[in-house]
Write a structure and sequence with these properties.
With 270 residues, the chain is α+β, with helices and mostly antiparallel strands. It has 11 helices and 6 strands. It has 2 domains: 150 residues, Four Helix Bundle (Hemerythrin (Met), subunit A) (Up-down Bundle), CATH 1.20.120.450; 106 residues, Nonspecific Lipid-transfer Protein, Chain A. It starts with a helix and ends in a 24-residue tail after the last helix. The relative contact order is 0.12.
Length: 270
């Protein structure tokens, strides 16, 4: 377990470094561009990551203090989300970059002290250390993608996407429950080609329900950063098609996702 946890922490740190390289190359005006998340600019994606990297580090270091912080952010007049967006919007680009830089590095430092067998509190059920850090990697990659999509700065995908793909498969039942639906338990096989060219076989063995394509496309769909029609992902069979229509690998209420055609010009993935 310790080896698996350390591998995920290493990959989270590498994903943070990839995003840091993007932020360091962004022109000032790119920080203010509207992202594809309604109402959010690129800078807001960074503020989101800074906030939740801070709270994740607190959850690792002091579970009681983390739980108290949740109670302290309950305000019927101003939502927690609006508070951290307002905080980020009051900062210069350099200050915002520094906020996330410290929060992300503090999270790694806290993660290095974790007991691999410990359960960690979060905004829902407690999580294992591996699941907790995997979720932070998924958030770093997906919110980083929101920035990359509008910043005009490249950030090539890597085989670190295996963590996001695994989470996407594991959260299949949640995607239904989160919408008040009964989970579909029909087996679905997931066949993905990694950025390196490796082939990943995930999900359950099935000859009738299959999801096939690149990890790049699959991870964008399960994190609701692309509508499946704007990818080359194949969903074969009714259970596979239904899953891809509700897939949501992140916690929180059902997201609206992206509209069909929003990224139609991207249909070039190998």
């Amino acid at each position: 377990m310790a080896d698996v946890l350390n591998e995920v922490i290493d990959d989270l740190e590498a994903e943070q470094a990839a995003l840091a390289s993007v932020l360091d190359r962004m022109p000032d005006e790119a920080w203010e561009r509207k992202s594809h998340a309604p109402g959010w600019m690129a800078r807001d994606q960074v503020a989101h990551l800074a906030t939740f990297d801070e709270t994740a580090a607190l959850a690792i270091a002091d579970a009681d203090a983390f739980r108290a912080s949740i109670a302290a952010t309950t305000d019927p007049n101003v939502s927690f989300e609006q508070r951290y967006l307002d905080k980020g919007r009051a900062l210069s680009h350099a200050e915002l970059r520094a906020w996330w830089g410290k929060a992300s590095s503090d999270l790694i430092a806290a993660a290095r002290t974790m007991d691999g067998k410990a359960r960690l509190p979060w905004y829902g059920p407690d999580m294992s250390g591996v699941s907790f850090i995997t979720a932070r990697l998924m958030e770093t990659w997906s919110h980083g993608l929101d920035v990359v999509d509008v910043a005009g700065v490249d950030r090539p995908d890597t085989d670190r996407l295996r963590h996001v793909a695994f989470l996407g498969v594991r959260t299949r039942p949640f995607s239904y429950i989160n919408r008040g639906m009964e989970p579909n338990t029909e087996p679905v096989r997931v066949e993905l080609t990694a950025p390196s060219g490796a082939v990943w076989m995930l999900g359950e063995e099935s000859t009738t329900n299959i999801i096939r394509g690149t990890a790049t496309d699959f991870c964008r769909v399960v994190t609701q950063r692309r509508h499946i029609s704007d990818t080359r992902l194949e969903a074969i069979g009714p259970a596979a098609e239904e899953w891809m229509s509700v897939a949501q690998a992140f916690a929180g209420p059902p997201g609206p996702g992206r509209k069909p055609g929003e990224f139609a010009g991207e249909l070039f993935h190998p």
